[in-house]
């Protein structure tokens, strides 16, 4: 979703070499190898359904996000009454560049393959002649970015809780060969109970080259690791730990540590400026940030032989019971205010003030050749339906 937080970069993708004995599920059949899902609102169901799913099965209620290729709507499913977030992508915009097409297909693959308490759930994917649709878990607390902008900065207790849940989400992604690559407050949602949900996998990538690295420049500039800025060097999972350090700094101080007047100046700052931390930060937070924001990726906390366990053992997280946190049994120190199930006050008014207008029947479809790029896009989750109703959170 778009935001004024940083210069927008085309939606995300990367991939990491895994042992042959443990291939990630998302590396099984590619989208292009699946049976064709015609350019009507057809389905390639993974489980039996009475009829194909299409946009007519959902009532748009509000716009809750916009991006380069389309919008995100809060919708209600007609048959069940459940609320979902429906991400719509214009095919004509996606097929402009092959990179954008691959990013979109990879996001769909990753969302299907990954199941984790702190990662957004995909329930349906389908398409029409003009658009692609991803029907996702609706997370009513809105973006962490919105709350951080309102609060200016968070107490350390909140930063510890949020970053610990992000660590668990990243740990899972890394275990199945996915580098997230676009960690930032706009891509972290808060549930009605204050637990985090990582979303927007357009820039994530699955499976690196034989060296275990990739060298595609992706992500939001303030959160880019030095090795991402120096595109020619290649990078690995440790870029996500750098971005985690930037996020923690942002939560504790209200800004990223490396900034500039424009994109180039910010990149120069990331590459050349020494880390300077405010004196009011606690010794544990200062030590953690110093170890996460190492310019050399191999020196970064989480990138050594001990991996993510070294990060979990850091004194900054001394209050965290990791197993209870994973089970969502730890009470969140910051809980968004939600008045009712359709309350979108935690989303940017720039989005929610827009009319939730459905697809125009007069828009031109893409060519058959372009449309063939999205064969196999459709999907129906086998997971039990996740109730996003107000009563399920509060009653």
From TrEMBL:
Say yes or no: keyword Lyase present.
no
Q: Where is this region: Disordered?
A: 1-49
Q: Which UniProt keywords apply?
A: ATP-binding, Kinase, Nucleotide-binding, Phosphoprotein, Serine/threonine-protein kinase, Transferase
Give the residues the record marks as binding ATP. 87
* Record field: compositional bias (Low complexity): 24-48
Q: Which GO terms describe its molecular function?
A: ATP binding; protein serine/threonine kinase activity
Please name the SUPFAM superfamilies in this protein's record. Protein kinase-like (PK-like)
List the InterPro entries hit by this protein, alphabetically.
AGC-kinase_C, Kinase-like_dom_sf, Pkinase_C, Prot_kinase_dom, Protein_kinase_ATP_BS, Ser/Thr_kinase_AS
Report the family membership: Belongs to the protein kinase superfamily.
Protein name per UniProt: Kinase-like domain-containing protein
Q: Which organism is it from?
A: Piptocephalis cylindrospora
């Amino acid at each position: 979703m778009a935001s004024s937080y940083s210069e927008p970069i085309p939606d995300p993708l990367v991939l990491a070499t895994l042992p042959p004995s443990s291939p990630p599920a998302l590396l099984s059949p590619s989208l292009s190898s699946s049976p064709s899902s015609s350019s009507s609102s057809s389905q390639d169901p993974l489980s039996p359904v009475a009829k194909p799913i299409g946009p007519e099965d959902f009532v748009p209620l509000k716009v809750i996000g916009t991006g380069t290729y389309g919008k995100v709507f809060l919708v209600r499913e007609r048959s069940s009454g459940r609320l979902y977030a429906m991400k719509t992508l214009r095919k004509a915009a996606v097929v402009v560049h092959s990179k954008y097409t691959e990013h979109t297909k990879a996001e769909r693959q990753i969302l299907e393959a990954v199941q984790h308490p702190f990662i957004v759930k995909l329930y349906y994917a389908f398409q029409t002649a003009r658009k692609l649709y991803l029907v996702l878990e609706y997370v009513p607390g809105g973006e962490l970015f919105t709350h951080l902008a309102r609060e200016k900065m968070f107490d350390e207790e909140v930063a510890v809780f949020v970053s610990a849940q992000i660590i668990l989400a990243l740990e899972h992604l890394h275990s199945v060969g996915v580098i997230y690559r676009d960690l930032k407050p706009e891509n972290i949602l808060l549930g009605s109970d204050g637990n985090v949900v990582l979303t927007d996998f357009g820039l994530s990538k699955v499976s690196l080259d034989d060296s275990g690295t990739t060298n595609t420049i992706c992500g939001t500039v303030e959160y880019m690791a030095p090795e991402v800025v120096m595109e020619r060097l290649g990078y690995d999972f440790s870029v996500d730990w750098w971005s985690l350090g930037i996020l923690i700094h942002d939560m504790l101080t209200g800004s990223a540590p490396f900034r500039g007047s424009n994109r180039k100046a910010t990149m120069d700052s990331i590459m050349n400026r020494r880390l300077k931390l405010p004196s009011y930060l606690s010794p544990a937070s200062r030590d953690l940030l110093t170890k996460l924001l190492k310019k050399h990726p191999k020196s970064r906390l989480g990138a050594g032989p001990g991996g993510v366990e070294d990060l979990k053992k850091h004194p900054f997280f001394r209050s965290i019971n990791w197993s209870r946190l994973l089970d969502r049994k730890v009470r969140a120190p910051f809980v968004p205010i939600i008045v009712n199930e359709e309350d979108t006050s935690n989303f940017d008014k720039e989005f929610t003030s827009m009319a939730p207008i459905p697809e125009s029947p007069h828009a031109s479809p893409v060519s058959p050749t372009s449309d063939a790029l999205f064969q196999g896009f459709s999907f129906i989750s086998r997971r039990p339906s996740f109730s996003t109703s107000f009563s399920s959170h509060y009653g």
